[in-house]
Known about the structure:
- The chain has 6 helices and 2 strands; from the N terminus they run E-E-H-H-H-H-H-H.
- It has 163 residues and is mainly alpha-helical.
- The protein has one domain.
- Helix 1 (18-46) crosses helix 3, helix 1 (18-46) runs antiparallel to helix 6 and helix 3 packs antiparallel against helix 4.
- Keywords: Membrane, Transmembrane, Transmembrane helix.
- The chain crosses the membrane at residues 21-42, 74-93, 100-122, 134-153.
Amino acid sequence: MQQAHSNYTVIKKSKMTGKQYSLSLTAGFWSGIILGIILYILEKVSGKKVYTLLMNVDFIPVLNSYLLPPWIEFSLHLIVSLLLSVGIQYLIVKRNTYRIMLITCVAVLPTILLYFPLSILATKEVARIDDISAFSYWSISHVIYALTLGYMLRHINKGHSTE
């Protein structure tokens, strides 16, 4: 049974279904692909190392001893996106709320702020910490990521909501 409250819906179901889990993985995969493509294009057009920053893992102790091929670096980025998507879906279901866009944007906000520690920790050349245009590209790309992921998660949960 569903109860409508102002701008959101509360549902009585609090377990993520297998279908929701699978579809949230799909949403995380495609949102991560879109983020990667956007940052790749921005880096090629502007020369700002924002895609390189996204792919950079040289500060991770075990991984920094290997020269990883680009497809593995991108796969690591996608794993983070998959985990974030499933985590957000879990929050949506567990909290019985369908303020999906708000939850997604709040959950993705820290990824925008990761620009600063990632820039500091990198040993290879990445976007500079004080480069406002690079930070803007990074931020806008992650907002697009959040909106894309939120839209997809909203679509996944549409059957469980009156929105």
